[in-house]
Amino acid sequence: DLYRKVFVFRKDPSDAFVVLRARLEQPLHNFTVCLRSYTDLTRPHSLFSYATKAQDNEILLFKPKPEEYRFYVGGKFVTFRVPEGRRDWEHVCASWESATGVVEFWFNGKPWPRKGLQRGYTVGATAAILLGQEQDSFGGGFDLYNSFSGELTDVYLWDTGLSPDKMRAAFLSLRLPPALLAWNSLSYEVKGDVVVKPRLRE
């Protein structure tokens, strides 16, 4: 249980990452991914990377610069511009539904204008899920200059789109529905220089 704890990625650039294990019985037609990050990086970095053997950017939450997030599904992406960080924790949730291709992006508990991506696509279930690196091949192929350095917490993956109430609940760290990946019952393995520490502030 990682309640009130964080992963600290200590080095920059870094070859470290955290492998997450999710129980996916079938491919995803809808999903929501949420996480909270704290960094002073200005270079591109990967936050959440979900790769299959067929597609290395099956799901990817990537930050090319401080005021921009890129959200990939099946190798294609949409961009969301956010306020330049005040060097504080940033909470993001991104959801996608296959039937419409609609992407929702929530930043610090507020929804951004919705966009469209990969209508009719299916996300593969046999996946390598990593924090802190961007996969260019299944479980590997890292570019150290896309690595994450800083603190990550509150990582979740659901196989549904979350309601607005639940999106806000994720931002506020309130009770959440059962998830494929849940921070308070996370199955993970640290690879390299990543340390689990208590959160310094709420």
From TrEMBL:
GO terms for molecular function: complement component C1q complex binding; metal ion binding. Residues 3-202 form the Pentraxin (PTX) domain. This is Pentraxin family member. Gene3D superfamilies: 2.60.120.200. InterPro entries: ConA-like_dom_sf, Pentaxin_CS, Pentraxin_domain, PTX_dom. One of its GO terms (biological process) is innate immune response. Binds 2 calcium ions per subunit. It comes from the Eukaryota. Pfam families: Pentaxin. Its cofactor is Ca(2+). It is found in: Secreted. GO terms for cellular component: extracellular space. Homopentamer. Pentaxin (or pentraxin) have a discoid arrangement of 5 non-covalently bound subunits. CDD domains: PTX. Belongs to the pentraxin family. It comes from Vidua chalybeata. SMART domains: PTX. Disulfide bonds join C34-C93. The lineage of its organism: Eukaryota, Metazoa, Chordata, Craniata, Vertebrata. Keywords: Acute phase, Calcium, Disulfide bond, Metal-binding, Secreted, Signal. The gene is Ptx2.
